[in-house]
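B., you asked whether I could sanity-check this one before it goes into the benchmark set. Here's the sequence:
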Amino acid sequence: MLAKLCKEYNLKHFIHLSALGINDATDSDYAKSKLEGESNVLKNFPLATILRPSVVYSVDDNFTTNFMTLLNRLPAFPIYYEGKTKFTPIHCSDLTDTIYHVISKNIYSKIIECTGPEIITFKELLEKLQILIGKKRILLPFPLPIAELTARFFEMLPTPLLTRDQLRLLKYDNVSSGKYKTNSDIGVPSVRLFDQEVKKYCYMWREGGQFSTEKYIANKDLENIKN
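And here's what the prediction gave me:
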């Protein structure tokens, strides 16, 4: 709809945010809908640029914040496919830098895969978050039949922890396919590292909240020295 309106009003550029890894995940409804969306955009606005980001994270995301909430509350956390699924998380600021570059350099009719500077497995990601919030949880591998059964149960909740479609998506690595140019290829490599960026807001899930931050502790130590 938006692409069609952009063409009718002779707008010069249309940038569509899609998702990484959707070509391989042919059994996922989410991936199918993303591919259909891309097709509709290009049909109505052939010069559109399609960005396919990996998992996007920041202080207000629904990714790291949800995981830190669950890791903070649960004694154990389920992992699927042995936690080996690979991600290349990209910080929202790196993604907006890419969008600005596409606009300022007049890049048209391209599919660009947007990835962060690191490849992190699902298990490694959970381990990093545990360290950042100062928790130690059991990461419990779930066999696929049990995972599917729990996903069916979660789907009955208002905000499911996991759906069967998300479980299918976890079969596929969320990394650059090598078939398209990446943000690095067009001159905008991601520079923000996962641990360093999440550290800026993970204090909300740490014991002591804002009083657990290095800045507060340093100020407290300085006050003690003065006294």
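One thing to flag: The chain has nine helices and ten strands. Otherwise nothing jumped out at me.
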